[in-house]
C-alpha cells in the first residue's frame, strides 16, 4: 500500500470524513451534514450505530453511496412496552399535550426522551421509543477522506 491517501479504505482504526444525509421512507430528510461541516469519526468509535457503520466498510475517498438501513440495524423496532401511562401530576407544572417531547429520568438517572401520545383526564400516555424506531432509513454518504486514525 502506498502513502497516497486515496489508497485507504474504511475499516477498523480508520478516521473517516464524510457528508451524510439520513432520510425517511418518503424521502423526508431527518439529518444531513450537506450544509454544514462534514462529519469526522473513527470507524468503530461508537459515533455511528453499527448498522450505519457496517455498510461503509471498504469504501474509499470519493465514494458516493446510498444504503437502506432496516429498523433492527438503525433505531430498533417500535416496542409497545415502551409506551407508558403516567399520571398528570407526574408532569408538575408542565401541561402535557400530544406531540410534546419531554425528558424523563429513569431509576438509574438516565435521561429518556418521551413524546406525549394521548392525554385522557389524569392519564397521560408517553411513548419512549426512539422517534425513528420502526423506520427503514436511507443513509446516503459521500466519503471525503479516509486515513489511519492518530491515537492521542
Automatic annotation (TrEMBL):
Entry annotated with the keyword Isomerase: yes
Domain PPIase FKBP-type as annotated: residue spans: 13-147
InterPro entries associated with the record: PPIase_dom_sf, PPIase_FKBP_dom, SlpA/SlyD-like_ins_sf
UniProt xrefs under Gene3D superfamilies: 2.40.10.330, 3.10.50.40
Keywords annotated in UniProt: Isomerase, Rotamase
PROSITE patterns (alphabetical): FKBP_PPIASE
Source organism, top-level taxon: Bacteria
GO molecular function annotations of the record: peptidyl-prolyl cis-trans isomerase activity
Annotated EC: 5.2.1.8
Top enzyme class: isomerase
Pfam (any one): FKBP_C
Reaction(s) this enzyme catalyzes, per UniProt: [protein]-peptidylproline (omega=180) = [protein]-peptidylproline (omega=0)
UniProt similarity note: Belongs to the FKBP-type PPIase family.
Protein name: Peptidyl-prolyl cis-trans isomerase
Organism encoding this protein: Vreelandella subglaciescola
Upper lineage: Bacteria, Pseudomonadati, Pseudomonadota, Gammaproteobacteria, Oceanospirillales
Amino acid at each position: 500500500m502506498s502513502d497516497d491517501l486515496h489508497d485507504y479504505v474504511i475499516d477498523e482504526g480508520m478516521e473517516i470524513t464524510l457528508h451524510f444525509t439520513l432520510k425517511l421512507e418518503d424521502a423526508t430528510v431527518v439529518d444531513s451534514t450537506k450544509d454544514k461541516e462534514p462529519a469526522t469519526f473513527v470507524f468503530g468509535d461508537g459515533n455511528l450505530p453499527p448498522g450505519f457503520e457496517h455498510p461503509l466498510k471498504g469504501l474509499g475517498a470519493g465514494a458516493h453511496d446510498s444504503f437502506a438501513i432496516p429498523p433492527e440495524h438503525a433505531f430498533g423496532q417500535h416496542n409497545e412496552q415502551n409506551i407508558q401511562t403516567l399520571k398528570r401530576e407526574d408532569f408538575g407544572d408542565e401541561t402535557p399535550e400530544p406531540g410534546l417531547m419531554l425528558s424523563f429520568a429513569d431509576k438509574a438517572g438516565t435521561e429518556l426522551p418521551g413524546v406525549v401520545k394521548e392525554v385522557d383526564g389524569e392519564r397521560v400516555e408517553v411513548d419512549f421509543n426512539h422517534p425513528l424506531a420502526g423506520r427503514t432509513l436511507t443513509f446516503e454518504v459521500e466519503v471525503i477522506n479516509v486515513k489511519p486514525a492518530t491515537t492521542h
